Amino acid sequence: MNKKLSLATSLISTEIDGETILLDIESENYFGFDSVGSDIWRLLKEGKTLQQVYDALLEMYEVHPKMLRTDLLEFVDKLSESGLVKIE
Length: 88
Description:
Elements: E1 5-7, E2 11-16, E3 19-24, E4 29-33, H1 35-45, H2 50-60, H3 65-81, E5 85-87
Antiparallel strand pairs: 1-5, 2-3, 3-4
């Protein structure tokens, strides 16, 4: 959880009504995140480690810690598989 993620440099993102839209200009693929995904993305853009993102989300949402950890790791895995982030 103390790993840092680096965001792909080929991304353009914007937030609209609490949701984030990403465009990967290399692959021309679009991605959309709901409000929780948008919060995660914003924290990652700030350079937070996974642990820092996890801690911030625990403060933001009423969620069971184990469920949050599982969901966060799944979300990050999907980001990685899509080439949006690299795990360092």
